[in-house]
């Protein structure tokens, strides 16, 4: 922002000295009882805004008013009213919106986190329609090449895809971004957006198999990546039985656990699977057992409890979460009978097709 | 670990409110109504709202006509800040409730979403702002709550979080807006609390600070967005409170006052509010409790809803 102001200052002629503005009386800002102290870098800004107020209140739809809005925006791209008035002018003066897009591009280069710019850009693209599609996709690509998690750029890109199309190459684009940075959660989100919404891919069900393969690979390369594990779970959204029965899921857990390194998400995924009814084999039990620190106290009564104990130890910042997970595990035999007696009092619920005995709280769908 | 330098933060906020010639105030001119809300709410939480001249603030707000600043058109962002500031001072009686409500009602779209202004930008932020605002004005029945809730739920992701529009990436700021709106409308049963709670508590990094998305840097502002969401879904005990308190206190400028996004960065009013509000949510001694959904001190919220 500072850069723009300084640049514009260099050879700028004050508006009051420009002949084309001689007939206009600027309207100073009325900012209540305390006068604004004029200072160097805001002088230009104040003058532009004073003239802006004059044309705005006179509702002057002219090309000089349009240039004035450009000047005001270059000094402060966050002024809502200036953008608003500019759109009115663009409409009534029937300006070529391709030229307007170039203007927005120039402003956006220094202010890419500004809401108004993105909104204005969308307005222009919407008016231009299909012809804007490729350039909009290209533009967001450029922004994302600088900041791959840019929220506005992703938001705009999703809007372009849904409104103007251009889905054909989107999965490849996700591949590219994830090849650059497999931890990029925005790219994983976009990937999910594409496989669930693209009209060319047949939806989640059709994509599940190949996506599981892709994700398992990603997990094996970086098992500490929260995004890939969540994506894997997302591939089985509302399909818990498939999740539990897909041996690729339990196998990747086993593979990571055996390395005894960066296994936090592998353990928590295995815990989820068990809570959904999965019965771990001896290999998995051994792998979990092997992670128990030697100074651990008494043996836990089952593998799910052991997993929680380990997670309490290796993820101390979230110890309360893991303690809670343990507390929600099905009770042991004796307690189980006790719980069943309470069943008719509504203290036990069914979750995801698996009987889940809970001490309290029935509000959520996915837990154990 | 130091303590909260309350007196210095109060002095810092008061000095910024007065400083109209700063660079920040020029480029942030349009945001001054939000700035007033951040600064004044932080003062109130620290028990120092009485250092501000009520009449001056109220006449200043009324001169804005609920736009962002003098000469600005109304945008829903500023409307809520104005209403919140008036609520702080127990001056909601100066609001033309019907006019403000009619404006907000006009921004609701067919699918239940809200636009921020007449140009139609849609975002779950605006759903929260609209719902919070009409609720404070006791006019929740004027909007279509059922559709508003349905739209918010359509922005729910497979990780339990929420984005700005359907399919948008989960982001702690948007999650606050969605969970807050659902809390105000009594619809929290539609949140996958355990799944979202786990996603939110995964936001705590080793330094104790919270980030807003996976693999992003921690920032004091998420001490508000993440923490208030966790409280609303009753899962705040899943994070380490002690470590978060230490992180926020480490972001203080203990000499000149103010709180920054991360330790040793420059302070601003925005992060000062989020730091103080976060500490209030963490029940830090000496601070007034703040309501996680309305983002106003609890006594102010009680006054709005129980003193009628």
UniProtKB/TrEMBL annotation, chain A:
GO molecular function: CAAX-protein geranylgeranyltransferase activity; protein farnesyltransferase activity
Gene3D superfamilies: Protein prenylyltransferase
Pfam family, one: PPTA
Cofactor(s) the protein needs: Mg(2+)
UniProt keywords, alphabetically: Magnesium, Prenyltransferase, Repeat, Transferase
EC number(s) on file: 2.5.1.58, 2.5.1.59
Catalytically driven reaction(s): geranylgeranyl diphosphate + L-cysteinyl-[protein] = S-geranylgeranyl-L-cysteinyl-[protein] + diphosphate; L-cysteinyl-[protein] + (2E,6E)-farnesyl diphosphate = S-(2E,6E)-farnesyl-L-cysteinyl-[protein] + diphosphate
Coiled coil: none
Top class in the EC scheme: transferase
Alphabetized SUPFAM superfamilies for the sequence: Protein prenylyltransferase
GO CC term, one of those recorded: protein farnesyltransferase complex
InterPro entries found in the cross-reference section: Prenyl_trans_a (IPR002088)
Family: Belongs to the protein prenyltransferase subunit alpha family.
Protein purpose: Essential subunit of both the farnesyltransferase and the geranylgeranyltransferase complex. Contributes to the transfer of a farnesyl or geranylgeranyl moiety from farnesyl or geranylgeranyl diphosphate to a cysteine at the fourth position from the C-terminus of several proteins having the C-terminal sequence Cys-aliphatic-aliphatic-X.
Official protein name in the record: Protein farnesyltransferase/geranylgeranyltransferase type-1 subunit alpha
Organism encoding this protein: Trifolium subterraneum (Subterranean clover)
Organism phylogeny: Eukaryota, Viridiplantae, Streptophyta, Embryophyta, Tracheophyta
UniProtKB/TrEMBL annotation, chain B:
Assigned keywords, A-Z: Metal-binding, Prenyltransferase, Repeat, Transferase, Zinc
Record's subunit section: Heterotrimer composed of the alpha subunit RGTA, the beta subunit RGTB and REP; within this trimer, RGTA and RGTB form the catalytic component, while REP mediates peptide substrate binding.
Manner of cofactor binding, per the entry note: Binds 1 zinc ion per subunit.
Official protein name in the record: Geranylgeranyl transferase type-2 subunit beta
Purpose of the protein: Catalyzes the transfer of a geranylgeranyl moiety from geranylgeranyl diphosphate to both cysteines of proteins with the C-terminal sequence -XXCC, -XCXC and -CCXX.
Residue ranges constituting the Prenyltransferase alpha-alpha toroid domain according to the UniProt record: 4-295
GO biological process: gametophyte development; root development
Needed co-factor(s): Zn(2+)
Organism (species): Trifolium subterraneum (Subterranean clover)
Superkingdom of the organism of origin: Eukaryota
Gene3D superfamilies for this protein: 1.50.10.20
Signal peptide: none
Family: Belongs to the protein prenyltransferase subunit beta family.
Catalytic activity: geranylgeranyl diphosphate + L-cysteinyl-[protein] = S-geranylgeranyl-L-cysteinyl-[protein] + diphosphate
EC number(s) recorded for this UniProt protein: 2.5.1.60
EC category name: transferase
Pfam family of the protein (one): Prenyltrans
GO MF: metal ion binding; Rab geranylgeranyltransferase activity
